[in-house]
Description:
By secondary structure, chain A is an alpha/beta fold. Helix content of chain A is 40%, strand content 16%.
Amino acid sequence: MTGERQLLSGDDAVALAALHAGVQLGTGYPGTPSTEILETFDQLGGRAQWSPNEKVALEVGLGVAFAGARTLVTMKHVGLNVAADPLYTAAYTDVEGGLVVVSADDPGMASSQNEQDNRHYSRAAVIPTLEPIDSQQAYDFTRLAFEISERWKIPVMLRLTTRVCHSKTVVVPRAPVAATAVPSFERKIPERVMIPAFAKPAHHRLRAKLAEIAAWNEAEGPVREDRGDSELGILTTGISAVHAREAAPSASHFTFGMTYPLPLTRIRDFAASVQRVLVVEEGDPVLVTDLRAEGIPVEGKAEMYRFGELDVARVRRIIAGETSPEPVPPKGKPPELCQGCAHREVFQALKDLDCIVAGDIGCYTLGVLPPFSAMDTCVCMGASIGVGLGLRHALPEHEARRVVSVIGDSTFVHSGLTGLAEMVYNPPPSGHLVLILDNGTTAMTGLQEHPGTGRSLDHSPTNRMDFEAIARAMGVQNVHLVETTDKTRSLKDLISDLLAKPETALVITRQPCVLAAPKIRLYDKAAAEGTPQQTCAAAGV
Amino acid sequence: METLKNIVIAGLGGQGVLTASDMLAEAAFRAGFDVKKSELHGMSQRGGSVSSDVRYGTHVLSPMVPAGEADVLLVLDSTQVEINRAVLKPGGVLIAPELIAPGTLKNKKSLNVALLGAVSSVLDIPRAHWMAAIYANLAEKLHKINDQAFELGREAASRGSLAQPQ
């Protein structure tokens, strides 16, 4: 299909580019808006796998890169917080095969718990960063990112945002390259073993690489200049560039694709060529701060535009210096737990028992909304267990006894295991109760597999983690499995009994997600018959 | 920019809003236009409000339709009309689910395709591209029933004298 135009989402364009760039393994953890990248890569014939969390995904990716093969690691913005530990030091190492980390940010929080701006990570971890404006650039920059990564032996970040990931635009792909050299091991201790003796020179090498990449960006980096009148010049990157061109068609526009390190001389020249130079950027004033620190007198947006996504109307207001209140769009219908969802029974029981609920990230976070309103905290993946334990430690006993931690199956694998270790190691005097709401899938992001489902990313069978056995082996005193179809004992009574005991307890409520159940039956059937895995689309579900 | 067309499709999660916008975007793409389609998904798939923007023409910049600039607003659930009305430009066309008479659809799930049939009567995309785009987004066993739904919507639009977008 090389050379033919296609209509692709940004996520699909990254997947196609990864295939064309010869990526030998894609790893990641599902997270809106990044999830479709690895799914598409798998459907196109690439080799992709879900890791338990983003940290592990990046570590696996780094190993692949040390072996000389190209690897793509995908996650949403908050996933990079989990992967931050390996990221910072991976930057010190020399990678052999290209290592590209996708950070899919969510300004406006369409489906996230915060709207952190991961351009800060580029600067903090010293990771060269490319930011596409549409699917064509998502394709082109993915391929460019691999070339940069291998040329300078450095991890490269591809920063996407929701509107780039989930918008479909026209893409014309280029000829694929064959997979790079056959992976092999070559001992390079000073470049890969980050003890202080080796890390000290590695830090200097990293800064030297960055200086070379900055020089390359000045000379031949992906920039675009649209000369209009010289009254207004707009400096912009990512999706903001298309909003800005539409909002101010007669202005001069300077759009740059590599946003760290910056092409400072070219920006300085552009700024000098116009009377008023305005930076249009979504999120935090990252570019404004950088450019002002370099002595380039740029104008930024008003503080009110730090929040939420930009669009054409907001960019028009930014240009006009408008700071009056913006029109408030009418409220739509909020999402809710599906009819027939097993989580409903759990939240009804927690509400009836007036529990204090430390919640977590997933579909079940919807338990916070009416009619249940049965969630009291939600912070990040896995936080339910630690936060619940903290509440138990601090509250007076009669209140501590009401505290329950609620976590999903995929979230438990992602970040709940260490919380369980904490519960066993430092049990509160009143004990504690953790509920794993096991619906057999990563439902919120669109029904992805995880280590607890016994199926791989492509839904074929693999080893399955046994939550009950793990909890017992870790030393949890009471472990119960409740199939929610089993009505011999009510869930409410069980929770009530466990809250009365000063012991540690884990209850797993298990019933497949109503949306996933028909697909799971198909996967099980295919596995039993040993037939090749059918994709959902082909199966018509 | 004179040829730019802006369409917003809205409804509730599970109604086929995103499938409809995929079909429309693909039809315009097959007709040779530059196309951009934008959506937000994630939590919205749990029965909440969903909307998707499609823009096509000689050259499209932003993938999002600015408020007050939509030529067509297609709504799949009547509760979602008022909250989306502000996207329409003056003289823009509203296509609401009441256009399809109760009981005339053989399968209620085809409402999105029926309303696309109505949209097709006010847009400059040849019929063959519509059908190819619809088929490409549906399993083969659903093609025939959606043929009928598309035709039903087209006829309803012709009887209902939809205004042409100005």
